[in-house]
Amino acid sequence: MKQVGSQTQALDPVNGTAAADARLQHAALIALDWGTTSLRAYLYDAAGNVLATRASTAGIMNLPRSAEQGGFDAAFDDACGAWLEQAPGASVIAAGMVGSAQGWVEAPYVDAPANADALVAGIVRVKAAGGVTLHIVPGVLQRGDLPNVMRGEETQIFGALGQDTGAVDSSKRALIGLPGTHAKWAVVQAGRIERFHTFMTGEVFAALREHTILGRTMDTPDRPDTDAFLHGVKIARDKGQAGLLATVFSSRTLGLTGQLSREQQPDYLSGLLIGHELAGLEAVLAQQHNSLAGQQLRLIGNEALCERYRVALAQFGCTHAELVKYATERGLWRVAAQAGLVNPTPQAAHAG
Amino acid sequence: MKQVGSQTQALDPVNGTAAADARLQHAALIALDWGTTSLRAYLYDAAGNVLATRASTAGIMNLPRSAEQGGFDAAFDDACGAWLEQAPGASVIAAGMVGSAQGWVEAPYVDAPANADALVAGIVRVKAAGGVTLHIVPGVLQRGDLPNVMRGEETQIFGALGQDTGAVDSSKRALIGLPGTHAKWAVVQAGRIERFHTFMTGEVFAALREHTILGRTMDTPDRPDTDAFLHGVKIARDKGQAGLLATVFSSRTLGLTGQLSREQQPDYLSGLLIGHELAGLEAVLAQQHNSLAGQQLRLIGNEALCERYRVALAQFGCTHAELVKYATERGLWRVAAQAGLVNPTPQAAHAG
């Protein structure tokens, strides 16, 4: 697959230059990363280059009007209407919560282990008011006592896997982490998502900080305090036996004893939670005769957050954590190509 | 110590009968359990019988007016003014957050291990506007990498210990649990609080339910669902290796897969959290060559909540968990007596 994203440009599709307009006419694919609280749209040429991007807050729980009143159509038209006018032949693909039971149309989960072919087979179509068909990528479900689900991350993971060069032995088991509100850790092998775990780290951090006594003694620091963060990671790693419900109270008590300032407490708590996440992941890996130490893993997500995870992972002996960029754009393109929605050309349409 | 509380009566101190008035004149002690969100007041005769109780929502974070504007005095007068008019010679003692840095006057923590004498030695006095002196019981602090603090629970624990009959060998190490917003587990021996642990179980449950995605798929059941609760406890006990951040997500995903109804999810999540608390406690006990299995422990707190803990404890092999009633009233009386604030008489003043 062609390396996309390296030429990402944010063009205004309405007021763009004539040259940009000409490029937009060659657009081959519109792809949407449509989550709960945000919507990102990407426009690609036939070679997979991203010509333009748009972002809005019209996530599925934040539509401009209710779903019954055409909220999905309205949000889609706001984001992509101008693109579709200029490139009416472009295919449209979407991944994320837009395919959930609360989404535009439900694309039932495909079971793990799942490869890209399984995702393609699970695509569900919905026709927008303007007549264009959206292809909704399904999420992945892992059944069991502790079922796991993902929607959107599967597409990012296939974006990361599609980027593998010959230097990567894709037949070997590897680990991909996606930090965030609901952090995911996926074990991948031979182009498949074998199994995965969810940690509600980001959302629990926000709930603890905003809605428990822990937030009352915290002040936001001017810049992230790496020492306080590392302190939290190490406590979770070395003294976390009693579990998160016990260790988080130390964010308050270390303040009471003068060992942690108000400005240090947010990063300390963040370190505690990420430390517990990694300790939990380590325990699960151990059951699979695996370990974080020495792993060559990949991270997908917000760069600053991934950097926090790299710092924390090093405390678990994992010093090779590579940040994968443009995983969303690459993944959407890859699934669209595999679904036959685009016919990738070897040359960029706008070359020269 | 005389068994108090068994004759607990809630008399209206203003509109009571003449007989009640006569008893109030013999009141020897007013004791306050003054926490963050509530204030409970107890009036005792010289034998330690509770003559009357009052409760209000005037916790230290919920005063009728600000502390600077005499909020503590106002709340105290509202609760106990009428009692003091009728029994002006009564001593006054208070325990709980009223002695914190945000309280009426700070009663600095005493260090664990701590016995009742240490509490008495740490009492701090404050004079109310009406002239009466309040004796504020200090909390207990356990220093270390994960410091622990309690305020109010130490008094309840000494209330439970004071109730020990000759059948209890107080020289043996024992465990006392205080379920709640911030659950405490104390190891006691020879009349001392040796060490203790805090689990933010109640507050984390509320934050997860009210302020995360988990609450969105929950409905409140008509009655507690013990099966769903036990399911959560067992998952935490047997499949909790990945930790709380991972297991709580199953409250949602078991709903998505149809394994848990909306009405079952609250009790399942409650079971998960209490299960993680007990698994964490078990891990800490193991470090001390101890275990929950076979423990003869005591529980202090809300009866329905303690019953949940009894059900959960049985899953950890602990089938002897005795509910201690009136621990607060007994503890306040005991500390007051040990401080010389009352001279316990062997007979009830209102006998006959």
TrEMBL record, chains A, B:
Q: Which Pfam families does the entry mention?
A: DGOK (PF05035)
Q: Which domain of life is it from?
A: Bacteria
Kindly provide the name given to this protein in its UniProt entry: 2-dehydro-3-deoxygalactonokinase
Origin species, per record, is Paraburkholderia agricolaris
